[in-house]
From TrEMBL:
CDD domains xrefs: TM_PBP2
Gene3D superfamilies (UniProt xref): MetI-like (1.10.3720.10)
Alphabetical UniProt keywords: Cell membrane, Membrane, Transmembrane, Transmembrane helix, Transport
Subcellular location: Cell membrane
Protein name (record): Sugar ABC transporter permease
Keyword Endoplasmic reticulum found: no
Chief location of this protein within or outside the cell: membrane
Keyword Cell membrane: yes
Record's bilayer topology term: Multi-pass membrane protein
Biased composition (Low complexity): 1-13, 21-30
TM ranges: 46-74, 114-139, 151-171, 202-226, 251-272, 312-331
Taxonomic classification: Bacteria, Bacillati, Actinomycetota, Actinomycetes, Kitasatosporales
Sequence similarity: Belongs to the binding-protein-dependent transport system permease family.
Amino acid sequence: MTATAARRPAASGPGAGAAGPGLPSRGPAGARRRPRIPARLRKIGLPYLLLLPALLLELLVHLVPMVIGIWMAFKEITQFYIANWGDAPWAGLDNFALAVDFNAPVGEALLRSFFTTCLFTVLSVGLCWCLGTAAAIFMQDNFRGRGILRALFLTPYALPVYAAVITWAFMFQRDYGLVNHVLTDQLGLTGERPFWLIGDNAFVALLTVSVWKGWPFAFLIVMAGLQNIPKELYEAAAIDGAGVWQQIRRITIPSLAPVNQVLILVLFLWTFNDFNTPFVLFGDSAPESADLISIHIYQSSFVTWNFGSGSAMSALLLLFLLVVTAAYLLVTSRGRKSSDG
């Protein structure tokens, strides 16, 4: 009996994990329980975890330089303190007072640049929206070659900014440019070859390049917004006798209101802050007619080496854009609520 009991296998069951006083317990009763994160908490925390790399990159690329720039606006940082910015004297609000003193040369030049930028932004955003909306509505009909034409329309948006603007700079050359060749030699619209990169025509050249590379973005966004409009609305309007223009005015434009709200705001911010286009087109000394505020701040900072004054202008520009953006969102949101109500 004793030998048989010794050869008998160990019993299995809930208590089988307790093999002896010196052995670790392996059964479910002795297993360690890991703390489990609630499913709701994991669901809430996952989006923030995925956004963490983008937030860190945004902090390093935008927020940290912005804070440093605002700090520089209160310092008298000139070419004499470039080597050691910490030794620059404290200027307080002197840089801001100099920028908004419109009777002084600095303030007068900044105000003129601000009005030029406002006019340029209004014309560029308006033309981009009109061309993009018209092209998107035209592309809603099925016809042969529509896909190829869509790809051609998006080409200016897909090209690198520097490559596109440099190409336009060659085309606007007075003696050998394509623009003067077509206008003067082919069409005979001008008696002599005009200058496009200097003088008053520089504003027209800058506006042309800005609209050319900006309207495909409006076309893309509006074309995506048109996909959400039910076709039954157009069919019912056609049965009621509404023409094409009445359908666009009564159905298309009101239905695109949420899309246009975001589109116009993005185009406004991009155009008002545009630095690459005028810098590549004219260099660091833009003509007075095309002296956008981005180039003007660059000249104040990196040409005259007055970083304190340039930082103050940048801070004022940031404040202006924040106020305009907040007012625009407030007005458009109220208009949408009133129309929905």
